[in-house]
């Protein structure tokens, strides 16, 4: 089954080339992209089963043996990431087709949108299957360059402004990564992750620390952990809704995946775990406080995105197999739920004409379906029990409690607090956008105000509450009067396809919930793999899994012959 | 492993100048800074390749240079070139859009809005404010005996 490995990357790349070759034919481009992404999704799920059954797949590109050639590795973690990200790319693509059909594509230069989107997918997949550091760098560059194009799509003034920040920050992180690769190569003489594992262990500990930190800083910018996350809420919200959704879901997680690989494959005995604990705590707190203070729903979601990266860093810092397992499950959950939320906000924007909470209101009457589509992922992200967000957090907290260190207990407390605050921030947005009567325009025509006075007298508001209400009113008024407030777009028709794509994503998140047993089992096996990376290294270098491996019996096939 | 001091010095100077330019607000300088830092990184990889020898593969008997870093550098140069071209296009577009402010990095309007809104919300609630605030009639007799006297 080794031949499946490179197809994951080739499929979207070939699709992109074909789509680029027929610039005038939108239908054809759409069809090609749809086929390529559907095939990638199927392939991703297939790889999950194959890898879970038969152990990791290793392909030596061009038949050159491991330390000299380029290895492509798919183990349980990468297979899960591939499957989830392919499904997300497909769903968001269907959403954007719906949007494009409704708007007549006048906003986006479509002839490059589809190919670029596919190349972005190829970059993400390439980063997930990379078996050596330099290939990981190339994967990052592929996805970054296409993300530069997507974030500045159309070249309007706000997008160019946001794009400049994004591009410059990404460039700096890429150069840091490249320099770190140079240093690693200078210290060890290899970039193959499997070989690095043994070579790095032989280095003096202070040198190990420097290399570890250099890589972590480079990946930290991409993963948007606390001190390095400043760029994210600035740049994501201005992009078109589907682009923001896919960026929020995937790009930061590629950074987290790279951190996981660094901490397990390269530095299994890492001494920076306590530092990661602190960073996780700060990311959680600062991110969610940022979210609470926002009035724009997209920016608020960008901040919750940063905040929840903290949970994943927490799981990595626990550094036990249970911790890794919970992290893997949490990443899968978060990719899906965050993308769904951004898609739902895209729908809200079409319905309400703006994403600012000062302009939204009364959506529950005009679009109850969107209300549900936002409400379910909101509960999910906030960690309300039946959903996957709750399961992921329980896994993380259990693993943390097993560690029995003060830092872990602190983080459990902070994590619980942050999940409450997430719920608060999102619920506030939901209430303001959906339950409140529409603020400026159709004020009289709403049943909302008729209901609310009926509730009020039961509990007379205190003076403080009145003060707060007044100030909120003043703040909202002031924001509406602001000269640079975005003019509300006129309300547009919402095509079924967009609603369908969002509902489909919610369906996927429900699958994560209902199939949590097998999936968490899978994540636990993947966590075991990550906790004993020497098995994978052995497999990559010598093409055989030593006995007593993680339950796999079938020896993987010989490296591909050319 | 020996390193030629001159190359190390050149690398350091390029890094310093590049980082200085990257910190500037003018986009053209950021581009120049990026190119300098990128090339300094290429030099860094080159320096990491160990002792220099004959050309790889064709070198014959003598010890050869390590070819792998050279391959890295080639890839990195291509990527830097492509991204540099994109950055130039971005700068041109930015300049076309806002000729008034040259090619500077713009402020984020939403950030500023939040900043001013924060000034609005973090004001202290004083006793005077509370007295001025409209109260519900039925609250007055129970809570505040002084108000009753008035």
TrEMBL record, chain A:
The chain crosses the membrane at residues 31-50, 57-74, 80-98, 110-130, 136-157, 164-187, 207-232, 239-260, 275-293, 300-322, 369-387, 407-427, 497-520. It is a multi-pass membrane protein. It is found in: Cell membrane; Membrane. InterPro entries: CPA3_Na-H_Antiporter_D, NADH_UbQ_OxRdtase, ND/Mrp_TM. NCBIfam families: PRK12665.1 (NF009308). Belongs to the CPA3 antiporters (TC 2.A.63) subunit D family. This is Na+/H+ antiporter subunit D. It comes from Leucobacter albus. The lineage of its organism: Bacteria, Bacillati, Actinomycetota, Actinomycetes, Micrococcales.
């Amino acid at each position: 089954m080794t031949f499946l490995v490179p197809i994951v990357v080739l499929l979207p790349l070939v699709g992109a080339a074909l789509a680029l070759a027929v610039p005038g034919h939108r239908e054809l481009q759409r069809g090609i992209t749809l086929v390529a992404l559907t095939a990638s999704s199927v392939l991703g799920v297939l790889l999950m089963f194959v890898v879970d059954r038969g152990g990791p797949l290793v392909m030596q590109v061009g038949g050159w043996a491991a330390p000299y050639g380029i290895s492509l590795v798919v183990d349980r973690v990468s297979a899960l990431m591939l499957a989830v990200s392919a499904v997300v790319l497909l769903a968001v693509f269907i959403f954007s087709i719906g949007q494009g059909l409704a708007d007549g594509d006048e906003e986006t230069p479509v002839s490059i949108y589809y190919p670029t989107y596919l190349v972005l997918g190829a970059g993400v997949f390439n980063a997930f299957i990379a078996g050596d550091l330099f290939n990981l760098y190339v994967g990052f560059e592929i996805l970054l360059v296409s993300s530069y194009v997507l974030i500045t799509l159309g070249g309007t003034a706000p997008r160019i402004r946001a794009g400049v920040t994004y591009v410059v920050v990404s460039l700096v992180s890429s150069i840091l990564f490249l320099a770190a690769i140079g240093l690693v190569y200078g210290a060890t003489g290899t970039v193959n992750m499997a070989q690095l594992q043994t070579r790095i262990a032989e280095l003096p500990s202070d040198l190990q620390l420097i290399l570890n930190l250099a890589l972590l800083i480079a990946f930290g910018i991409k993963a948007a952990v606390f001190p390095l996350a400043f760029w994210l809420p600035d740049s994501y919200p201005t992009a078109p809704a589907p682009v923001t959704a896919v960026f929020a879901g995937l790009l930061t997680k590629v950074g987290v995946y790279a951190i996981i690989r660094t901490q397990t494959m390269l530095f299994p005995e890492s001494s920076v775990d306590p530092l990661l604990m602190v960073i996780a705590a700060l990311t959680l707190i600062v991110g969610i406080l940022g979210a609470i203070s926002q009035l724009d729903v997209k920016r608020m979601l960008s901040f919750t995105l940063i905040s929840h990266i903290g949970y994943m860093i927490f799981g990595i810092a626990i550094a036990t197999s249970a911790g890794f397992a919970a992290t893997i499950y949490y990443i899968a959950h978060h990719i899906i739920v965050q993308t769904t939320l951004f898609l739902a906000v895209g729908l809200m924007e079409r319905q309400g004409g703006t994403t600012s909470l000062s302009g939204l209101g009364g959506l529950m009457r005009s679009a109850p379906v969107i209300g549900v589509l936002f409400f379910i992922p909101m509960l999910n992200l906030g960690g309300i029990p039946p959903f996957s967000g709750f399961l992921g957090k329980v896994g993380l907290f259990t693993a943390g409690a097993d560690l029995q260190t003060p830092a872990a207990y602190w983080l459990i407390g902070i994590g619980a607090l942050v999940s409450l605050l997430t719920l608060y921030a999102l619920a506030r947005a939901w209430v303001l956008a959906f339950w409140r009567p529409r603020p400026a325009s159709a004020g009289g025509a709403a049943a909302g105000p008729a209901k609310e006075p009926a509730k009020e007298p039961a509990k007379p508001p205190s003076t403080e509450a009145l003060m707060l209400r007044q100030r909120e009113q003043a703040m909202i008024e002031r924001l509406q009067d602001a000269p640079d407030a975005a003019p509300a777009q006129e309300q547009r028709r919402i095509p079924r396809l967009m609603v369908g794509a969002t509902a489909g994503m919610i369906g996927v998140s429900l699958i994560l919930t209902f199939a949590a047993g097998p999936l968490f089992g899978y994540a636990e096996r993947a966590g075991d793999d990550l906790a004993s990376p020497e098995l994978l290294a052995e497999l990559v270098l010598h093409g055989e899994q030593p006995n007593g491996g993680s339950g796999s019996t079938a020896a993987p096939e010989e490296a591909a012959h050319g | 492993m020996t390193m030629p001091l001159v190359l190390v010095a050149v690398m350091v100077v390029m890094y310093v100048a590049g980082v200085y330019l990257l910190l500037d607000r003018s986009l053209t300088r950021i581009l120049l800074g990026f190119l300098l830092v990128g090339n300094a990184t290429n030099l860094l990889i080159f320096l990491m390749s160990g002792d220099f020898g004959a050309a790889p593969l064709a070198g014959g008997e003598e010890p050869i240079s390590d070819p792998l870093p050279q391959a890295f550098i080639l890839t990195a140069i291509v990527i830097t070139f492509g991204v540099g071209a994109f950055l130039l296009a971005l700068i041109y577009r930015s300049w076309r859009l806002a000729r008034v402010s040259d090619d500077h990095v713009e402020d984020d309007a939403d950030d500023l809005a939040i900043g001013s809104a924060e000034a609005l919300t973090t004001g202290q609630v004083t006793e005077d404010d509370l007295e001025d605030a409209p109260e519900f009639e039925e609250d007055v007799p129970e809570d505040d005996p002084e108000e009753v006297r008035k």
